[in-house]
Amino acid sequence: MAGLRTVGAIVLTLVVLALLGTGVTLLVAGAMAAMVATFAIREKEVRGQAVTLALGLPVALAAVGLGAVLHNRIIAGDLFFIALIFGAAYARRFGDRGTALGLIGFQVYFLSLFVHATAATLPELFLTLTVAFVCSAVVRFAVFPDTPERTLSRLREAFRARLAQLVATHRELVDTGPEELDGVLDDLRRHTARLHETALMIQGRLEEGTRDSATAALLQRRIADAEIAAERLGMTLLNARSAERTDTLTLHLPHAPVPATANRMQSEGDAVATLRRDLDALGLLVARRAPGDRGTALAHVRNRLLGYRDEEDLPRGSMAVQDAFRALGEAARAVLGLRLALDGPQDESDDTSATTRSREEFDAEDLAIVGVAEDEEGEEDERTGLQRPTTRAAFQVAAGSALAIVGGEFLSTQRWYWAVLTCWVVFLNTASTGEVLVKGYRRLLGTVLGVVAGVALAGLVGNHTWTAFALVLLCVFGMFFTAPLSYALMSFFVTAMLGLLYTLLNTYSVATLVLRIEETALGAACGIIAAALVLPVHTDRRTDEHLGAVLDRLREAVSAAVAQLSGGPAADLLTLARDLDTALNDLRGSTQPLVHPITPLRVRRQTARYLVALLETCAYHARSLAATAEVLPSSRSVAADPRLERVGRRIAHNIDLISARVKEEPADGEVEAGASIASLLDADGSPVPPSHTVTFRVLRHLQRLDEGVVGIARALDVPVSGRTKRKSI
């Protein structure tokens, strides 16, 4: 959508400017200004977008005006450019609006350098910028409106599509032979991860995209149920086809264990045939969106799948295959809840007793959701002065840009600003020296490849102006489409677009594009030097901060879930679980320099991957515990067990010790390991519950969570006590 919106704004700007009879230089300026005015605005609320866009126009006019006035005043122009860069980076502390206005100011000043703006051309440039901003507003608010409700609606449909993809992969897993197993496992993990990413994106849009907090809480709950049920279904299918036990699908280690190639399910006969049929039926249940199911085969399919929640309706088969059918029934229940949340009330005339029971459970859960959630203020950043990330980044990028200006002048007195642009962009959305290094490397790689493409496109276009503009639009769309996927690909499209723009301005040459590579390398080097020498934030420190945050969120989520499962007070467990997921995403980003292929420290790379994998496993089990504890007040199948309280204390104690080690805080004691969760609960002589019960599932999540925490402790060299396990789940 961002790509379509930007391309639409550029097209409308070009059409209006062409009707006004402007020259090619102003067409290029208008296209660049429309692009900046569109992609700089990131606020979610429509009113906020309009205010920022309205404020952005005078900022743009002032930037291009100063660029034209200082055109021939080299020293004064350079000093102002550095001051502008500092201000634009510092403005990020004021949120999305400050970030947008700073970005507009910097990019439009860069535009004035690119088109060689002078005082004589200012009136035409002012008109061009005004047209570009107006066209951007028209496209944003009329052609491709971006309201929170629309965005949330698209995300909900995306979640449904991702869920359907995952169910289709589950179906493939049943019959996959040894030769194709690795590919199907990769698909299974990738689709599971993408479903999780979509759930997180929905979480970020719930507050603005729903009419009230109750609706947001209901949708959040149904999305979480569907996500967890789908992942559990995948694990039970893996367990059914292999003798090896699978406890999570987030297996990211290079040599992570995979199920044995032999498929044990093939000997199950009729049960497996039924499983194939019902997985196809579950896919149909996910994909169909029509609310009217009266008298249709879809109602029959739904009723049959929900029947697997009752033990007497399970097909004959091994215990592992029956577990798969139980998981299939729970997945069908989650899909029914998702359909109720997304499509509204469903016809109930064909309901069986199992379906009626599921609906009654949903009604009880809905009543338990608090009508009006208390607004929680975001945590204030207590850091001040040079400790504040935006202040530090402003000094770093200003210092790096000063170096880039000096070095760029030596390379070219006409194109020196490319080095400054590269130095600027490598600091965007980075927070450590390692992140700047990796981003600079990706920028250079994309630029080199883009220069090759630019040479080819320039030769193809020749003097055909509108053909060049059409290819520019394709490159712009490619920039936005690939930005979330690969920064190197985005840089490739940027450089290819520049080759076309130089062709339009009749300043194209191979030497110009080669100079682009040199300036990019210089700008990246200046950014890395500034990040390393000016108020540096080392990658280890950054990852430790995020690791500490993940551990804190993990402790909060697990402690609250266990407390509620023990009979304690209710808490907003799903929000705590999503806070954990958000913190884990931040940790993944901060570890990118450590796990990148160019990293020479292989041991650190393996350790970082291992820790992230363990934390992802712990996060999955924490989500599952939270989802189970959330239904406790209204559930007929799970009851509070006060014995779990001591389990929660042990896990919380272990996490506290690890967190203290990461934060370099004093802590006494050792991480407790050895005795299984089952043995901790066995003090009163009660046997471990049967494997098909919800209680057993809770115990298994706690067991794997406890083992994951101990694994994290060992990886971080936290002292671990060694006692022999008595019983395992």
- Whole-number average pLDDT? 83
Shape: globular
**Helices and strands: which structural class?**
mainly alpha
Range of helix content: over 70%
Distance between the termini: 48 Å
What fraction of the residues are assigned to beta strands by DSSP?
under 5%
Summary of the model, kept short:
With 729 residues, this protein is mainly α. It has 26 helices and no strands.
List keywords for this structure.
single chain, 729 residues, mainly alpha, 26 helices, 0% strand
Characterization of this structure:
- The longest helix is centred in the N-terminal third of the chain and has 29 residues, at 181-209.
- The protein has 729 residues and is mainly α.
- The chain has helices at 2-19, 24-39, 46-69, 74-90, 95-114, 122-143, 148-175, 181-209, 213-241, 270-287, 297-306, 319-343, 353-368, 389-411, 417-426, 433-461, 465-482, 487-504, 510-533, 539-565, 573-590, 592-595, 602-630, 644-662, 677-681, 694-715.
- Helix 2 (24-39) crosses helix 6 (122-143).
